[in-house]
Amino acid sequence: MLPVVAIVGRPNVGKSSLFNRLLGKRLAIESPVSGTTRDQISQRMELANQDILLIDTGGLSVGVNEDIESDVQTQANTAIHGADLILFVLDAKNDPTVDDFHAAELLRKSGKPCLMIANKCDDLSRLEQGAFNFYELGFGEPIAVSAIHGTGIDHLESEMDSNLTHLGFKRQEEEDRPQGALRITFIGRPNVGKSSLINSLFGKKKVIVSDIPGTTRDSIEVPFSYEEKSFVLVDTAGVRRRGKVEQGIEKYSVMRSFQAIEDSDIVILVLDGSDGVRAQDLHVCEFVLQQHKGMIIAVNKIDLFDEFEAERRQFENILRHRMAFTPWASVVFVSALERRNLFKLLDLSLEIGAERRRMVDEKELQFWLKDTVLKHIPAGSRGLRQAEVVSVFQKPGNFPCFIFKVHHPQFLHFSYKRYLENQLREKFGFSGTSVKMIFDNVSTRGPRGPKAKRGHTAKKAPRSQ
Questions:
Q1: Average pLDDT over residues 96-100
Q2: Other C-beta atoms within 10 Å of 325: how many?
Q3: Are residues 276 and 165 in the same domain?
Q4: Are residues 189 and 317 in the same domain?
Q5: What is the rounded distance in angstroms from the CA atom of residue 27 to the CA atom of residue 203?
Q6: DSSP 8-state symbol, 142
Q7: Confidence class for position 383, pLDDT limits 50, 70, 90
Q8: Do 221 and 352 fall into the same domain?
Q9: Does residue 31 register a pLDDT over 50?
Q10: Strands 85-91 and 41-46, sheet pairing
Q11: How many domains does the chain have?
């Protein structure tokens, strides 16, 4: 097990900035708006002698009444109790507040090892002047850092490494590390039940759930094992129509959602069974196709159809009609409320993951192409030139990709490309995943050089007298 290091503190002291600085990349959304981070964000990180799981948490506050913010407090408290080492972050530009003392009291009661960090420490003289106030919190001398400028980060990492080594942790051997985890991203419009589905899968709160659209802001990763296979589930912020996306936090949340799609193996597009299929669902589906990912369409709130079988069939027919460009995608009716058909999503994901990695025998692929072209030869074009599919081979990679060698590919009609894909799927499968097909030009240059242009004849050499 990796040691868990949690970043804790009151809102707006720079926890997410420190999280991003330690990782060397922007994973958590940074904003001057207090309370931007809501869910736990976790990421693997390497120290000199340790591999750790670093967790960013929402801010700890006193007297929180709103449902979402109280859930943030619960998540932060859970992170404290599950951590092996805690980074207690303070704002060096201001004296400790009531929330700082409240957080310090929670940390003392937890009994966990803690490093106190004075962030935003661009001026060391200011820290020295206010050092007495920080000592009042009872965690010794603070470590001065600036997450924005990167000062003091090396010293902080050294202290983290030293403390974890003292606690008996050591780096995992290479063979003990989880390899090849299947990344599954839940995507969809706001408030369709993405977070509820993940929580129902585990039977406990892994991410915050609320009736208020836009509750999830960051892309939240949840690693786990199922059927002796490693998975990483990714919960994302709801994606609205481009014109309705507000500037600021929501804009960055949507960017994170699309980035999560790019990083995933399989995307589960979640629809609200009570709300039908919207244009935004089709837009997200199109992006999944562009990224060549596996896809499952999960229709949530199946319990609404229990007594209306005809309406359920009508919904599926409308869905298939509007998403006719993805006939290979499986449709699963699920209920987060009643935990129905949830594990079917994981079983299908395992099957799709295997399909995405499958390689077709090269000879069998050439025989297939020959038979397919003989059954239906590409239509001719005006003039003498005509597209001719010569050969095909499969490119190794994380998803099925086939490269066709074609004479004059510019004259190959899009309907013939679709015909080749349909025949390919009929013969070899690849259900549940998009297939990338590349049509490369075959050079027409022969051993005697290029053909002469029409209407021009070569000049005859003069006869010798």
A1: 86
A2: 12
A3: no
A4: yes
A5: 27
A6: P
A7: low
A8: yes
A9: no
A10: unpaired
A11: 3
**Cα angle value 64/69/70 (rounded, 5°):** 65
Cβ atoms within 10 A of the Cβ of 358, count? Answer: 12
415 domain-assigned: yes
Q: What is the DSSP letter of 445?
A: -
What distance in Å separates the CA atoms of residue 369 and residue 371, rounded to the nearest whole number?
6
Report which DSSP code applies to 85: E
Q: Which positions ≥6 away from 114 have C-beta within 8 Å?
A: 85, 86, 87, 88, 107, 139
83 Cβ contact partners less than 8 Å away, ≥ 6 residues apart: 4, 5, 6, 55, 112
285 CB neighbour count, 10 Å cutoff: 21
CA distance 102 to 105: 5
DSSP state of 59: P
Residue 321, Ramachandran bin (φ over 0: left; ψ between -120 and 50: alpha; else beta)? alpha
Over residues 423-451, mean pLDDT: 77
Q: What is the mean pLDDT of the chain?
A: 78
Reported in sequence order, the residue ranges of 122-228 that DSSP labels E, i.e. its strands, are 143-144, 182-188, 220-226
Q: What pLDDT does residue 35 have?
A: 46
Q: Indicate if 213 and 268 belong to the same structural domain.
A: yes
Which uninterrupted H or E stretch holds 404?
A: strand 401-407
Confidence check: pLDDT of 225 > 90: no
The pLDDT value recorded for residue 296 is: 94
Prediction pTM value: 0.58
Q: Which domain holds residue 73?
A: 4-176
List of long-range contacts for 166-173, beta carbons under 8 Å, 24+ apart: 167/3, 167/84, 167/85, 167/113, 169/3, 169/50, 169/84, 170/49, 170/50, 171/49, 171/50, 171/51, 172/2, 172/51
Closest CA to 220 of 82, 56, 64: 56
- The pLDDT of 362-373, averaged and rounded, is 94
Copy the structure tokens of residue 408. Answer: 């004059």
pLDDT tens per residue across span 67-96: 434 544 555 666 677 788 999 998 888 888
Instruction: Please check whether residues 165 and 201 belong to one and the same domain.
Output: no
3-state secondary structure 104-140: HHHHHHHCCCEEEEEECCCCHHHHHHHHHHHHCCCCC
464 part of a folded domain: no
